[in-house]
Amino acid sequence: MHFKFLYLLLCLIGGDASLSLVPSSIGDCSELIGLVQRKPGRGDTTMSVSCSDKIARWNVVGVQGALLSYFLRPVYLHSVTVGRSPYVSEDVCLVKQLKRSLFERVTPLSNELIKPFEVNKPIFCAAPVPPKEFQHSETAQATLTCGYSICWNKSGLHEVILGTTGRKQGTSSKGAVYPSTESLLCKKRFLETFVSLRHECKIRCSSNEVSYRELKDRADEYSSASKLFKGRPPFRNWLLKPVNLENFSIIRNEGNYPSGNSGNSCDFQG
C-alpha cells in the first residue's frame, strides 16, 4: 500500500520562508534570511525553532521521528500547499519562497546522506486567498493564534490540548501531574506505545527501566542523518532542548519483556 502525505496551511509559515515578505517599515531582515529562527511565544521564550526550519528538517530525516524509524523507512512529504495572504501582493511568488526555504537550504546535504535518507523535494503549491472566515482581521491590533490544539486519530477520538502546558483541556493547576491529564501525543505516551511494540523490532533490554533518550539515540541511521543536518550551515545554531526533558524512563514489566544479560544496556536489532 502506498501513501502520500500532503501538508496544507492556510497562511504562510513562520520563520525563514516569510522573512523576505516582512515590510521594510518593520525593519531589515535580509541578514537573517536562511538562518534558523526561534519560534515566537506569547510569554516566555520558546525552546522551539520556526515552522520553516522544522519542515526543512523533515525534508532530510522525514516526519516519522527517531522511534518510528525502527519500524519505517523515512516518511517524506509529497506536497506543501500554502494559502495566500490577502495582505501580500500577488506579485510575490510564494512557491519560490517555499522552495528556497524548505528545499534549497538542505540541498547541500544531498551527497552526504546515506540511504534510506535523502533530500526530499516536495511539490510546492500556492492556494488562493482563504475565505474571509479564515482570515485574520486587517484592523486587528495584533494577530493572536488559538491557544488550543485539536488532535485526531484514526479511531475518531480526539483530544483538545492546552498549547501552553501540553495537557488536556479542563486540567486544573492541582491536577496537572495526574496521568489522566496527559495527551496521547506526549513523549511519555510515545515511549509506552513504543515499548509495547518492542518485539516488532527485536529490542532486548536488560535494564528494568527504558530511557526515552537512549532509545532515540540507538536509532543509529536516523541519529546520523539528524546530526549531519544539524552540523551543517545554516542549521548549526539549531536550538537544542535540555537533555533532562528526555531522560525519563518507564518501569518494565519483567514478565512481558525479553530477558537479557545483567547491566543497564539495550540491544537493538532492526
TrEMBL record:
Alphabetical list of PROSITE patterns matching this protein: A_DEAMIN_EDITASE (PS50141)
Pfam families the record matches: A_deamin (PF02137)
Keywords attached to this entry: Signal
UniProt-listed InterPro entries: A_deamin
Positions of the A to I editase domain: 43-248
Entry GO CC: cytoplasm; nucleolus
Signal peptide (residue range): 1-17
MF GO annotations: double-stranded RNA adenosine deaminase activity; double-stranded RNA binding; tRNA-specific adenosine deaminase activity
Gene Ontology biological process terms from the UniProt entry: adenosine to inosine editing; RNA processing
This protein's name: A to I editase domain-containing protein
Organism in which the protein naturally occurs: Gossypium harknessii
